[in-house]
C-alpha cells in the first residue's frame, strides 16, 4: 500500500497536507515531517494547512512558518493529492473538507481507533503511539531519507503524544523509533524544552487557577475544571492554554476520570477528558466526539452548566 502512496506523491503536482483543528504536537509534527520528507525525496514543495491557530510553543518546528491557516485559505483551490495527518474524523478539519472532497486523491495517516478509513488510501494504526509513528514506518518502508528536519518533527509528534514517554502508549516501538531519530541528530533536551518548558507566565497562572478551582465528585473519583469565557479573557490566554489541565487533575491519586470543560460561546462547550482505566472515548462518543481510551474529547451544543450536568450523568452511567 505504501507504494500506492509513493506513486500518488510522485504523480502529484499540487499536494496539500492538513492537520486537525486545535492542533497538537502530533498533528503538527507529522505534517512538518511529511512536508520535509516529500521535499527531500522528490524536491516537491507541498502546502500545509491548519484549521485553527497553532500554539506558540510549536514555532520551533522546521517549516512551521509555511503553514497556512484555514480562515485565510483559498478554498476554491484544487489539489492532486490531499494528505491528512492525525485526523480522527473529517469534521476535525472543519471547512477544509471542501478541499479534501475536491482532491483527485486522498491519503489518511492516523492512529485513532475511531477512524473510519475515510481516505482513498488509509494508513490507520490504532496501536501506534502517535501519527508520527505511522508516518515514520511508511517513510522507513519506502526507504525515504529522514533528515534532521524530518526527524525533529517526528520526534516532537512521538514525544508529545506519549506525554514525554510517560503514557501507556510508550512501548518498544515508540522508544525504538525515538532512538533512531536521536541517532539521526535529534537533541531530546532541545525538543523537550520547546514542548514542555516554554509556557508563558499567564498560561501557568491560568492553569494553576483552573486546578485550584477544580470540582470533585464526593468520592473524589471524578475531577473536573469548568473554564468560562471570562476566565480565558481575564488571564489573556489563548484557548490552547487549557491543554494539560485534565492531565494535572488525573495525576491526583483518587482521580479515575478527569475533564476540562471550556465555554466556547453561550451554547457551545468543548470537553477534554482523561482517565486512568475507563474508556473515555465511549463517553465522548455519546456526544459525537471520540479519541483514545484514556484521552478523548467532544463538543457539546449546550450552555456550560447543562453540559456539565449531562457529562456527569453520562460518566456515572458508564461507570455503573
Ligand atoms: Mn495523535
What is the level-2 CATH architecture name of the largest domain?
Answer: Alpha-Beta Complex
Q: Determine the number of helices (DSSP H or I, runs of at least 4 residues).
A: 12
CATH topology of the largest domain: inorganic pyrophosphatase (n-terminal core)
Beta-strand segment tally: 12
Termini, distance in Å? 43 Å
Spans where pLDDT lies below 50 across 5 or more residues: none
Strand order of the largest sheet: 3-2-1-4-5-6
Ligands in the structure? Answer: manganese (II) ion
Write the CATH homologous superfamily of the largest domain.
Answer: inorganic pyrophosphatase (n-terminal core)
Q: Rg, please?
A: 19 Å
How much of the sequence lies in strands comes to: 15-25%
Helicity, in percent? 40-55%
Mean pLDDT figure: 96
CATH class of the largest domain: Alpha Beta
Name the structural class. alpha/beta
Largest sheet, described in full?
Answer: 6 strands, parallel
- Count of spatially separate domains: 2
What is the ordering of alpha helices and beta strands?
Answer: HEHEEEHEEHHHHHEEHHEEHEEH
The coarse silhouette is: globular
Give me the oligomer status: single chain
Amino acid at each position: 500500500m505504501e507504494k500506492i502512496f509513493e506513486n500518488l506523491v510522485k504523480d502529484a503536482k499540487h499536494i496539500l497536507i492538513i492537520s486537525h483543528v486545535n492542533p497538537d504536537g502530533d498533528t503538527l509534527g507529522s505534517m512538518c515531517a511529511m512536508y520535509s520528507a516529500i521535499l527531500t525525496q522528490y524536491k516537491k514543495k507541498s502546502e500545509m494547512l491548519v484549521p485553527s491557530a497553532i500554539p506558540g510553543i510549536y514555532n520551533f518546528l522546521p517549516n512551521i512558518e509555511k503553514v497556512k491557516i484555514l480562515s485565510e485559505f483559498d478554498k476554491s483551490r484544487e489539489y492532486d493529492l490531499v494528505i491528512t495527518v492525525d485526523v480522527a474524523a473529517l469534521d476535525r478539519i472543519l471547512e477544509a473538507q471542501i478541499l479534501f472532497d475536491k482532491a483527485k486523491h486522498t491519503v489518511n495517516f492516523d492512529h485513532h481507533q475511531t477512524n473510519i478509513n475515510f481516505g482513498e488510501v488509509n494508513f490507520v494504526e490504532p496501536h501506534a503511539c502517535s501519527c508520527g509513528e505511522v508516518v515514520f514506518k511508511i517513510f522507513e518502508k519506502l526507504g525515504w531519507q529522514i533528515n534532521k528536519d524530518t526527524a525533529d518533527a517526528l520526534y516532537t509528534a512521538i514525544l508529545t503524544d506519549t506525554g514525554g514517554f510517560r503514557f501507556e502508549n510508550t512501548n518498544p516501538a515508540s522508544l525504538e523509533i525515538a532512538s533512531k531519530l536521536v541517532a539521526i541528530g535529534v537533541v531530546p533536551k532541545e525538543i523537550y524544552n520547546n514542548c514542555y518548558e516554554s509556557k508563558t507566565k499567564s498560561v501557568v497562572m491560568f492553569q494553576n487557577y483552573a486546578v485550584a478551582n477544580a470540582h470533585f465528585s464526593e468520592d473524589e473519583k471524578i475531577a473536573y475544571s469548568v473554564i468560562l469565557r471570562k476566565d480565558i479573557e481575564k488571564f489573556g490566554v489563548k484557548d490552547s492554554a487549557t491543554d494539560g489541565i485534565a492531565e494535572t487533575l488525573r495525576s491526583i491519586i483518587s482521580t479515575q476520570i478527569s475533564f476540562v470543560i471550556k465555554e466556547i460561546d453561550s451554547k457551545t462547550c468543548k470537553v477534554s477528558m482523561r482517565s486512568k482505566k475507563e474508556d473515555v472515548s465511549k463517553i465522548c462518543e455519546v456526544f459525537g466526539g471520540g479519541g483514545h481510551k484514556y484521552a478523548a474529547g467532544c463538543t457539546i451544543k449546550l450552555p456550560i452548566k447543562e453540559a456539565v450536568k449531562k457529562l456527569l450523568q453520562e460518566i456515572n452511567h458508564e461507570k455503573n
